[in-house]
Design goal:
By secondary structure, this protein is mainly beta. About 0% of the residues lie in helices and about 55% in strands. It is globular and about 65 Å long.
């Protein structure tokens, strides 16, 4: 982690009781400690429960664990606080969460990629944020997408999103048939990249962002071009989008050094 901790998920076998449990173990300053385990808080949890998704941030952790439902906790300063229950309530998100697929987290922002249950058997994929003690929707299939169309395929894949501090970038398809990358910052979602836009004189045919693409106001991505030009790594400078209230200023994109 950025604050010098090593966190690993391990399984402990208990042959005397024929049970196993999953724990998150932390090593910091040569000391080992258990952050969370499958039969941990609250005290009425049963043995054999399963830790599911988790993400570490400076001095903290967010994780979900399976009970009768999937309960989500934010752990900071050794205190675990429940912030939502799948199948029941994530206050601020309209309707129950059916499945959590990943977390990304910082001290200021948690982003959960998840499946939300609609009426009947219908479901939608989306990105949902937690900050300041409340949940909110960042983007969800069927919502209007900045730049045109609606979000059409936000399949919650942790590889196609990146979080740093209180900013989050993600990619997905829209109903216009284009691939687009977006920035979430301070409550506003803004388009960054769109297939078909011209970079270095060539139309962009596809691009990829990764788990650590975003650092401060800079986002690294790989790009391929319709002209057959060589695949390259670029850096987009997003500071203008983070400071201009209209979010309509152009994004500076340059090829990464080396």
């Amino acid at each position: 982690t950025e604050d010098g901790r090593v966190i690993r998920e391990v399984t402990l076998n208990h042959p005397e009781t024929y049970t196993t449990e999953t724990v998150l173990v932390q090593k910091k300053d040569d000391e080992l400690s258990i952050l969370a385990k499958s039969d941990d808080l609250p005290s009425n949890f049963r043995p054999g429960q399963i830790l599911l998704e988790w993400s570490a941030f400076r001095d903290g952790l967010v994780y979900s664990k399976l009970t009768n439902n999937t309960q989500t906790y934010r752990l900071q300063n050794s205190e675990a606080v429940e912030i939502g229950t799948a199948g029941n309530s994530f206050p601020g998100i309209p309707g129950p969460i059916a499945m959590i697929t990943s977390f990304k987290s910082s001290q200021r922002l948690i982003v959960m990629s998840a499946v939300r249950q609609l009426v009947g058997n219908n479901q939608v994929y989306g990105f949902y944020g937690w900050s300041g003690g409340r949940w909110f929707t960042i983007a969800e299939d069927g919502m209007e997408a900045p730049g045109g169309g609606v979000y059409d395929d936000l399949f919650a894949n942790p590889v196609i999103a990146s979080l740093d501090n209180d900013s989050f970038v993600f990619e997905g398809l829209t109903s216009l048939g284009v691939q687009r990358a977006f920035l979430y910052h301070q409550g506003i979602v803004t388009p960054i990249l769109t297939t078909g836009q011209v970079i270095d004189g060539s139309p962009l045919s596809s691009f990829s962002i990764f788990d650590h693409s975003l650092s401060g106001s800079r986002m690294a991505f790989t790009a391929s071009f319709a002209s057959g030009a060589q695949r390259a790594v670029y850096v987009a400078e997003l500071s203008s989008l983070m400071t201009d209230a209209s979010r309509q200023v152009p994004v500076n994109i340059e090829i990464a050094a080396g």
